[in-house]
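Handoff note, outgoing to incoming analyst
You'll be picking up this chain. Sequence as last confirmed:
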Amino acid sequence: MEYRKLLGTDLTLSAVGFGVWTVGTTWWGVKDEAMALRLLRRAFDLGITFFDNADTYASGRAEELQRRALGDVRDRIVIGSKFGYDIYNHPERPGQQERPHDWTPEYLRKALEGSLRRLGTDYIDYYQLHNPRLDAIRKDDLWAELENLRQEGLIRAYGTALGPALNERQIEEGLESLRLRRAPTQIIYNLLEQVLGEQILPVAEAEGVGVMARVPHASGLLEGYMTLDTQFEPGDHRNWRMTTNARRKAWMEDGLKKVEQLQREVVTGRGRTIGQLAIQFALRSPAMASVLPNIYDEKGLEEYVRTFDAAPLTDAEYGAIQDLYRANFGLETDLRGQAVAG
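Most recent structure output, in case you need it:
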């Protein structure tokens, strides 16, 4: 495993992190709690130390699950969690719709107290605004309270996690987080969906503030298992990608054509899997502290952790990928605006 500084903080993260939403909710097909606990513990045993959670994942149950799996190694892991959605006054909505946000300092403190209790800890290492819009990023009293909480020792660092679905408005949100607040930000970023990273990563590098990437495998396209016949269970988050024929074509059908080109030009015979290539690509920027692949089985977990034993991505290969991307792989449609977020 590789470990990287989250620029702008004193935190060091495993370069591959674990987004707990894949096992703390049923959105990615993991419904066996014993398996979820086993995956979290196995990840730690393999060197993953950054575990990213949120109070809205299963209304806090994901945080409780993490405590049960990793509570005895609290001092050896970096805990990320998120706040902003009012989980106390608004029940979960059908279809994973967003709940109302509450960005008042009072709710921030209440949310933190709840997460601390569920996680079984007296501090959270990295606390993030969950899918904020510009108004929250510009809300001075909210950020003043975050700093109060840091000085009280209840959190060590804070930042933003942008979403929920990939949207170009998040470019401005990410830049505001970096420039106005000097706060790290979490974005959707992968070699098929670069719209945010193209704008945000150069600024992060210049400002010396960190970034994290989620959905580095484009919700499964870059994991190497998907075919046109792949079906997801009802309630699986990836079904959002295919709510219309146009969405299905832009994501799965055209996406698989892009993956085929990548397999042919920068994967086959190169000493890495396409899943490992996706992680190497996402980690390319020196501002990128950690990527959060969707982990829902032990096979994938072990493959991703072995990324750092695989043949590294060369400059020539990176350039070839970017040439394909700029030409949209020779296709008419693209994946812009199609990503699924957490």
